[in-house]
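Archive transcription. Copying these from loose printouts into the bound notebook so they stop getting lost. Printout 1 of 2:
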Amino acid sequence: MRNDTIFQSGSVGKQFTAAAVMLLVEDGKLALDDSIAKYIAEAPPHWRPISIRHLLTHTSGIPDYTEQLFDNRRDYSDEEFVQIAAGLEPEFAVGVRWNYSNTGYALLGTIIRRASGRFYGDILGERVFAPLGMETARVISEADIVPNRAAGYRLVEGELKNQEWVSPESNTGADGALYFTALDLIAWDRGLRAGAILSPESWATIASTNTG
């Protein structure tokens, strides 16, 4: 391992999805207290009280799709994923408590696309990674040749195995599907400390929001 070794972000990537949301807030394309039904027209009735803020703070009550019957080897369109998520039984009433939900952040990716007309990864590349000098940060791609990419592993009964294969579309979701190096994260931290990318008001909103 070196400082330029590229790792999969896992859920560390969620903070970048949140940054993309705040960029769209500043652009006037969405608001944190908008109902997600404003952007997801096919939302079931019990989603209407859920705001973008609830998705960001894991307080929507929408269960985590990774704990459900979900085929990671299949490519799902945004519409298909929304249909699956809409069929999940709510865990609790909106806003009454916290529970970690990958589903919420995957839905934020859909909302970003529908509000802006762009893939969240493209927004991050143009408005976060490039300005901050995160030179190798990007969305996961199994097809591209990515220098210095680390392989993923898992333990199976104490034995090291290669990670399970995930479909290309499923491996680009806004719930944590980025590549970056330690140097990229240093550049991100430097940007955070400098108040770059976003306005002071947006950073204050982020700092005052309890995300659990």
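Printout 2 of 2:
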Amino acid sequence: MTKLHTDPVPGVDALSKAAFERDFLTPLRPVVFRSLASSWPALNKWTPQYFADNYGDRQVRVYDASFARPGQHYMSNIEVLTLREFLHAILDSSRDLRMFLYNIARELPALLRDIRFPDLAAHFSRRFVFMFFGSRGSVTPIHYDIDLSHVFYTSVLGRRRITLFPQTQSAHLYRHPLTVRSYVDVERPDFSRFPALGNL
């Protein structure tokens, strides 16, 4: 065995609230909505230039791949840049930088006008709307969200591949002690070092 066994996540164009709750939310099954955000102004408006022009002077915490390493600096940012400087760095250089969990509901509430909360998530919180930016090729290691939340992840610009595992399989993923991170490299799993991966 050289790869982890994974199954594709089903994709739908539309789904009623009742069907979403019955078939996905309650049994904790992921689903891809192919057109859920198609009416969002953000899809045409949110470009790097737009953010640089309108919010470029905002100070943001910037991270690199070291943020996931266990130890004294676990989950620590490496520097603080203006948003304009950060965007310049990830678009015009080879630096592996990212920013995450940037709460636009708190920091840039005007941006909430550019997204539409779907009816099937009417009871989801509007206070926790986060932005993530990453450089080309950046990788976030396997982890779980500490609040065990349900998440509507929407890709506005670029592409992102996500690998999900059921919570019931977490014992096979070799979590770092006292962290939310895993030792496992999904792309190059080492079954000799981590034999429990064979149970996934």
